[in-house]
Write a structure and sequence with these properties.
The protein has 160 residues and is an alpha+beta fold. The protein has four helices and six strands, in the order ββαββααββα. The protein has one domain: D-amino Acid Aminotransferase, Chain A, domain 1 (2-Layer Sandwich), CATH 3.30.470.10. α2 packs across α3. The radius of gyration is 19 Å and the shape is globular.
Length: 160
C-alpha cells in the first residue's frame, strides 16, 4: 500500500473535501513546531462510527484545554466524518479527526492569534492487533509503576 501522503481519495479540511494529495499544511504551521494539536481516532463499522458524537465532543474539549477554540460544532464535526466516509466509499474504516493551530502571524509557544484548523481523514485499516483477537496475545507485566500524581509540585501561596 502507498504511504499516507500518496493515496487516492479525499480528506475533509477546513470545511471542504479536498484531494488526498492536496491536503497539506505549511512547514511553519504551529502544530508541527509546538505540538499544538488534538485528535480523535475512531472506528467505523458497517457505516456507523462508534461513539462518533462522544468523540467529537471530546475533541472540542481537548482543544479548549489547549486554548484552541475549534471553530466547528459537534454536529458539524460528525457531519464532516460522514461526508468523508461517503466521499471515499468506505463503510468500514479508521476515522481520524485532527485540529491544530495553523501557520499565522505568531510563532511563539501560545500564538493565540493563529488560525485553528480541522481535518478529517478516513482509511481502511484492518484489525489493530492482527490475529491476536482470535489466537490470544503474549503480555508482560512491567515492574515499573507510574509516578503518583501527588509527586507533582503544587503551586505555593507564600512567596519563596
Amino acid at each position: 500500500m502507498a504511504g499516507y501522503d500518496d493515496r487516492d481519495g479525499f480528506i475533509w479540511m477546513d470545511g471542504k473535501l479536498v484531494d488526498w494529495r492536496s491536503a497539506n499544511v505549511h512547514i511553519l504551521t504551529h502544530g508541527l513546531h509546538y505540538a499544538s494539536a488534538v485528535f480523535e481516532g475512531e472506528r467505523c463499522y458497517s457505516g456507523k462510527i462508534f461513539k462518533s458524537t462522544e468523540h467529537s465532543a471530546r475533541l472540542l474539549r481537548s482543544g479548549e484545554l489547549l486554548d484552541m477554540q475549534i471553530p466547528y460544532t459537534v454536529a458539524e464535526i460528525d457531519a464532516a466524518k460522514v461526508a468523508t466516509l461517503k466521499a471515499n466509499n468506505l463503510t468500514d474504516a479508521y476515522v481520524r479527526a485532527i485540529a491544530w493551530r495553523g501557520a499565522g502571524e505568531d510563532m511563539g509557544v501560545a500564538s493565540l492569534a493563529n488560525p485553528i484548523r480541522l481535518a478529517v481523514a478516513v482509511w481502511t485499516w484492518g484489525s489493530y492487533y492482527g490475529d491476536a483477537k482470535f489466537k490470544g496475545a503474549k503480555l508482560d507485566i512491567a515492574k515499573w509503576k507510574r509516578p503518583s500524581p501527588e509527586t507533582m509540585a503544587q503551586p505555593r501561596d507564600d512567596p519563596v
